[in-house]
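Entry:
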Amino acid sequence: MSLKLDPFLVCNRLVKEEWENREYELHLKRLNDIKNRKTKVETIRFPVILNNSKKAQLEEENQNEIDRNALYTEKKIKKINSQKNPDIWNPEYEKRKIREMNRNRGITSLETENQRMYKKIKNIKGAYSIKKWDEDFENHLRYLKFSEKKFYTPRGMGHRKLSLPEMKYDRANYIQKNKNTLKMLNQAVNQQDRGDVVLMKTLVQLNYYERMETKKSYEETYQSDLKKGLTKVMEKQYEPLINALLTDNNSVDIDKIYESLYEPSEAAVVIVEAIISRNSEDRDSLLAAFETKIDSSLSSEIESKLEGELKIFLLSFIQNQNLNKDKYDEKQADSWAKNLGKNFSFTSDEFLEIFKSSSKKQLNVFFKSYQKIHGIELCKESDLYKPICKSIKFIQTYLNNPILFKTEKIQKTFKANKPEFLRLLAIQPQKDLDEIVKNYNKKANIDTDIRNAFSQDVSRLILKMVHKNTDE
């Protein structure tokens, strides 16, 4: 309702003034109400834009395009690699195959398992084990001892189950022990158990061949590298010992041999040492591993990279299949020494045949016979600079006393290369290691050297590896 009064005609002046005054008062009242009214107008503040929105938009669109192309490329690769590859590219192809994929899921898992088993069987290489033959022969001799007067195989041995007294090898116990070892190592890798405690109970107690077999079994069981796993979770001080325990000796020697082929004077020693310090089985394993890693046989590499007398000698020496036999003939050695004479040729058939067909013991007897008959070494002083003489001199030194040679090499590496020192200790058979320790202690004390060179925790493990059969 409006408070304003409409004008109208009056007949009296007083009445007119009264109405004007009333209208004025109402006006003043309206003004007073407007002044007392609280009005607040909020000011809209817009944020200050500091970034380049257009640039960000373009970058986002570019990244979306890259992701979309990568997705299409991945799908295309899957189509190409699949057995049923459609000729026409269709993005909806995968959607239509959902039912078929679900239906074939069980078949796919079965095929994956079959592929894993095929790969495992394919990588297994057949080998004749001389060690196993020796064990069977020892068991056979124990059968023959049942009766001192009957030197024949007892009746019933072939077709009846006959218990063996004091069996050295129990396959069931070995398999169970190996499973426990793998389980403990996996716990150490997953930080569920202390690494040093697990090493003390497992790898330190094993010999070189058992450690390599354990490493291979671990990789097949858990699909991971044992050496990398232990190195990652354990402290830095344990890394040299882990590398020494789990490094393949063949791999190290293959690298040394391949590098030495470019320097004849080094190849003359490195190749001969790798061959003569191994038994027949390990030598064959080395040659096979060399061919696998280098994609070429050792003979081919020697043929292509070396020349002269050294090449002919090494090719003959690595073909020696009698090197690790125990047979030797002193009369034959004397005959070779006499027929060879003083002025022989290193490339003559008579000389090469000696190193191609003789055992280690036969070669050692031949060296002594030649010096006894002719009063000089096989290599004259004027020929010592030749690489072939370095090979012959090394063979003579090694065969004279293999344990002493290994001991001196370990002592040299202790001063110059601590990781190599640990590796050389780790690859030695326990029988040789005991003799090496005795020879080492004649000039110094190996226990003291190890404690001074490594931390207390690491030295405890190394000493246990060195003294497996003692309580140290």
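DSSP finds 25 helices and no strands in the chain.
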